[in-house]
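Researcher: If only I could read backbone structure tokens as easily as an amino acid sequence. Walk me, if you will, through where the backbone shape changes along the chain. I have put the entry right below:
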Amino acid sequence: MKIILAVTLSLFLSFLALEGGFRLFGNYLDRCESEIQGQDFNSSTFMKLTKPTLNPHAGFKLCQGFSGKFQGKEFSTNLYGARGKEFLPVKEDNTFRVVGIGDSVMMGWGVSDSETYLSLINQEKGYEGINLGVSGLNAIQEFFHLKERAFDLSPDLIVIGYVGNDWEGENFSRKNNSYASSSQFLNWMIHRVKGISDGDFRVTKDYLEKPGDPLKAYQAMGWLMKQGKIPCIMLLDSRYESGFVSHSNMEKIAKEEMGCEVVNLMTELREIKGLSVQEAISIKDRHNTELIIQGDGHPNSLWHKKVSKLLLQKIKGLQ
């Protein structure tokens, strides 16, 4: 019996040591390369600012510790791989922490660190905004970012930044290796047995197929937040509606399937029901003239400022 216990304890301690080593190495891999520091990146080189997530189904995240520019604007990431200044993983007392999950609009494509709507929340006393947005994520990938990254930060509120193309497959995804656990050592072992190299496990690739069912991803997000008793707000994009689901139906999904409050930016900022992508590009209205980066299509700093005010009003109404 003593021998069995000794062997079991030895194996357990060995597993802990290996797991710790893999996590340290994984954290090292997630850091931004030193040679990219201070550079100005653009849409064609954006992926150099990302690292593939260990879970292949989550896609990718921003690399850690970058300081430079993107689209000519100040762009930095902290040691959590989130855009903006450093923050304490443990929430400070008397602070209402808002954690955001989304894609390029939430991340702040084309605006400075201090101009994103989640960063602007930090200017309000007693509130803290943490921006986990990553350009290119779709609904299924956002589910895994919510589950594996946002909940670790003890949020008081989750904000889901919704854009019509979240229902679609984006331009980049992880190779689907069909297995991903919370143990980095087990991931490595099982992929080795299956004949998949380390490089395959951490490399992005182009793909064309639409992954899974986004509706199930939204339902699963809602279930997670209800289980954790964390309230949520969904911000609906002001530029165009999805070709799959109208904003009115998305409001219904957010409220009934997810239990989220909704801020419909199409009606709040444009006072219209919806636009197709082509209409959104071609229409000559005040929104496109004043709130969109010309020649780019992403919202500008004024848009982010207006959204931060709407979001804070909604948050204070929920408290």
Remarks:
- Residues 179 and 288 are 44 Å apart (CA to CA).
- Residues 2-29 form the longest helix (28 residues).
- Confidence is low (pLDDT under 50) at residues 170-178, 198-211.
- The chain is about 40% helix and 15% strand.
